[in-house]
Amino acid sequence: MGTRKKVHAYVRVKPTDDFAHEMIQYGDDNKTIDIHLKKDTRRGVVNNQQTDWSFKLDGVLHDASQDLVYETVAKDVVSQAFNGYNGTIMCYGQTGAGKTYTMTGATENYKHRGILPRALQQIFKMIEERPTHAITVRVSYLEIYNESLFDLLSTLPYVGPSVTPMTVVENTQGVFIKGLSVHLTSQEEDAFSLLFEGETNRIIASHAMNKNSSRSHCIFTIYMEAHSRTLSDEKYITSKINLVDLAGSERLGKSGSEGRVLKEATYINKSLSFLEQAIIALGDQKRDHIPFRQCKLTHALKDSLGGNCNMVLVTNIYGEAAQLEETLSSLRFASRMKLVTTEPVINEKYDAERMVKNLEKELALLKQELAIHDSLANRTLVNYDPMDEIQIAEINSQVRRYLEGTLDEIDIINLRQIQEVFNQFRVVLSQQEQEVESALRRKYTLIDKNDFAAISAVQKAGLVDVDGHLVGEPDGQGFGLGVAPFSTTPGKKSKSKKTFKEQFRPSTPPCKSVAFEDFKNERGSEINRIFKENKSILNERRKRASETTQRINAIKREIDMTKEALNFQKSLREKQGEYENKGLMIIDEEEFLLILKLKDLKKQYRTEYQDLRDLRAEIQYCQHLVDQCRHRLLTEFDIWYNESFFIPEDLQVALKPGGSIRPGMMPLSRIVSLGEDDQDKFSELQQTMLPEGPDSVSFYNAKVKTEQKHNYLKTMMGLQQANRK
């Protein structure tokens, strides 16, 4: 069990020109914030109104840059995740106080990026610094809007919308969201693309307090799994980091929300109220029941709130006098959160495959110890391995001779041999029963005496008389009737299927699967041919690799058997006495031949293993080519499909080479045809010209790709609407 530790709570003050210096003051330790209110004189002489509050937190971030916020709040949490500890970073506060800016930052500007993109950068940088571990990273992006769960990455083409609604599920491993897609990311740019994809799908609205107010709670989760490359230990560690951007609490009188925005605000305030109730219950040591299931937010964060993780809260507040009531409420929440304790432990799991390999090594050592024990006990060589077909056949022969009386007894060697002797007794008995039944069937017609229906049928057929005597046997010959398929009936000629280009343009687009087959035969025929050729080569290399692996395993088994025989010869030589001639050890011919055989086998093993490594490299390269061809085939099909069935014919001229470019993007054909040298030059130019240096390349690349994709989708939707009109 891990040691219990307090939740870390920080407060970040939104910069403003109208800061209330007389009402909000910071302590010298930069961890205390004091609030002072003037007494309301309208309450009369007797006035017990509280006017002063002091809040002790882990840090006050006033006029702090995004770099300082990340270093203070999140860096240690991300580092601990590489040691197997879960982490949660949550931004809480009033609407418009800067929660989304703190968590995500301004995606248009690399310098102003928030905790989330910086965490992704730190993770991939630390992976590069740990070559001794194989670390995989996966991400998911969940949105909780009006007490409903949504996958912000469901718009990706290979995911698609979920048929069944997502639900929060608990099991022995913890809490997870059933139906939420989890995406493998192998590089920093891919992770940024997923982040920006999710950000574009978030629900926002405008009100008096914030022009771009988040109307939902969002949880971006990073899952990590680390296996050691150097140690043979079957244990590996897993961890996850929840980065939570809560929707802001609102006073409806100040925000002026109406209609849909008012409904959203009601759900937001309700879920935040339930969150506060859960925090109060967690801070009370006498409470047994924690109301996690009151809303989807607290249920999804059950592991994070007081569970197995390092928890950090960032409370965002205003520094203006007009927002002092909401500021006090947010600081009270932060104080309550500091009373909550968590119990982070290292998440260790066991690799079943590696565990089997370690057990096999241990088994081999135990066999060697048994061999030494047998040698010391002057026993003949005993084989403890599973019996092969030759040994099983020999035991079967011994059992048959024992039953026939030609063998007086069967020598007992080990437990495995005893078990096989009994098994062969069962086999011989079963075979004898089958032989007797076959002999009877050749001579007689066997019918169950209790099967009256069969007896009656045989009598009606005239095969036996009333007394049951045999009359005759059918020859068993005959013929069958069937129905010829429609395509083989004479006089019918199959009509050739017209392609889409030969037909008039349909009023409704055809099924994509049908159109795809037509596309592969027409415009995409060349790339489809290349795809099939690459796939054929890939399958052939895989087959050769499989055959090579089988040969390697066979050679390895023969090496092991030769080693055992050689060790046996050495033990015999040691027992009989060793002979030397001019300082050289004299060995017999059999041991010499075994040594030569072992040498040849090892040479074969090394040659085959090198061939296998080369084949694996070829397979990896062929797989890359197949993936490239598949991606290009599908991409060009999407363009062809949209141009053929959605874009009006009078606009298709603009899409041809030499025509005008689509609004919002460069034609994909131009991008595909960009030469490698030009791409390399562009990448170098981009790295040198970006103001923030090479570290920002992945950030901007992902941003540009996401914007191009959404501009393309927006353009296509507009063209589809124009086509309908």
TrEMBL record:
GO terms for cellular component: microtubule. Residues 6-340 form the Kinesin motor domain. Keywords: ATP-binding, Cell projection, Cilium, Coiled coil, Cytoplasm, Cytoskeleton, Flagellum, Microtubule, Motor protein, Nucleotide-binding, Phosphoprotein. SUPFAM superfamilies: P-loop containing nucleoside triphosphate hydrolases (SSF52540). One of its GO terms (biological process) is microtubule-based movement. It is found in: Cytoplasm, Cytoskeleton, Flagellum axoneme. ATP binds at residues 93-100. InterPro entries: KIF6/9_C, Kinesin-like_fam, Kinesin_motor_CS, Kinesin_motor_dom, Kinesin_motor_dom_sf, P-loop_NTPase. It comes from the Eukaryota. GO terms for molecular function: ATP binding; microtubule binding; microtubule motor activity. The keyword ATP-binding applies. CDD domains: KISc_KIF9_like. Residues 349-376, 538-565 form a coiled coil. Interacts with HYDIN. Belongs to the TRAFAC class myosin-kinesin ATPase superfamily. Kinesin family. PANTHER family: CENTROMERE PROTEIN E (PTHR47968), KINESIN FAMILY MEMBER 5A (PTHR47968:SF62). Essential for normal male fertility and for progressive motility of spermatozoa. This is Kinesin-like protein. It comes from Catagonus wagneri. The gene is KIF9.
